[in-house]
Amino acid sequence: MKPANFDYARCERVESALDLLAEHGDDARIIAGGQSLMAMLNMRLVRPSIVVDIASLDELAYVKEAAGYVEFGATVTQAAAEAWPALRKRVPLVAAALPHIGHFQTRNRGTICGSLCHADPSSELPLCLATLGGDVVLRSRRKKRVVGALDFQIGLLSTAKQPDEMMVAARYPAARSGWGYAFREISRRHGDFAIVALAAVVGDGKIRLGVGGVDDKPAVHEWDDMDDDSLADALNDFAWDLGGGDDIHATARYRREMVRRLGKKVIGEARQCRS
To answer: Which domains does the chain have, with CATH numbers?
Structure first.
């Protein structure tokens, strides 16, 4: 299929994009990398009256370290983030997850913030942001606001972003000394959507596990550190609480089993890699 007709605007300043969003609201869509939006346009799942292109906004093409977090601007591609020399040291969970996202070619175009805005329940970057307890930065003509990951993604392909708002940055908490981070996922082939994805953070006597691909948005649970037998019981309870459903890729039973089995493995890996 081909997209329905739409107007196209290529912006050279953030303020220009915000002006268009204020004018068109729900009838506008932001495009940066287009790896999700173009497919939805072609299938006519979305029919905006105008597509606002921010890909050339150099002011948003940055990665910077701040107090306690690493901030990725809205036009930073997944490949650029992957190539950032300090990524594995500063945000090891994201470094572990990025190679699972699509393929090298799509990561050259897809952006960090675009993946967060698309809010696919199987997507790796929203899962990492939720597990780490990160934030997104939203701007409109009216104001700028910072929203926590668990409040931002509210459901399947659904976020708390308002029609006149644009995500300008994502903030991933930086690695902490003595903490461990690990990521695993199951998919039919490398680069396919995750059937189940798991991210683990272990430190300060706590275990934090995030699960994607089972519910309509990432699910995150935290426990006090515990022995293996208690952990198995806790993972079983978590898997049943998540529920999940059957689809053409896997059954709910299979997904629950992956939460139990892979959950134990990924937590074990996070424990082992504590620095």
So the answer is: 7-53 (3.30.43.10), 58-173 (3.30.465.10), 180-272 (3.30.390.50)
In sign, the C-alpha dihedral spanning 141, 81, 87, 203 is positive
Q: Which residues of 207-231 are buried (b: 16+ CB within 10 A; e: fewer)?
A: bbbbbbbbbebbbbbebeeeeeeeb
What pLDDT digit, counting tens, does each position of 115-166 carry?
A: 999 999 999 999 999 999 999 999 999 999 999 999 999 999 999 999 999 9
Q: How many CB atoms lie within 10 A of CB 81?
A: 22
In 10 A of CB 237, how many CB atoms? Answer: 11
Question: pLDDT, tens digit, for every residue of 198-207?
Answer: 999 999 999 9
Query: pLDDT tens for residues 60-118?
Result: 999 999 989 999 999 999 999 999 999 999 999 999 999 999 999 999 999 999 999 99
CB 97 within 8 A of CB 183: yes
Rg (CA), the chain: 19
* DSSP helix, strand, coil percent of the chain (3-state; round to 5): 35, 25, 35
Residue 223: strand, helix, or coil: strand
Q: Rounded to 5 degrees, what are φ and ψ at 82? A: -65, -30
Tell me how far the alpha carbon of residue 191 is from its chain's centroid: 15
**pTM score of the predicted model:** 0.96
The DSSP letter of residue 35 is: T
Which residues pair with residue 219 across a beta bridge?
A: 211
CA distance 126 to 274: 23
Residues 92 and 173: their CA atoms lie apart, in Å, by 10
For the chain, the straight-line distance linking the first and the last C-alpha, in angstroms and rounded, comes to 50
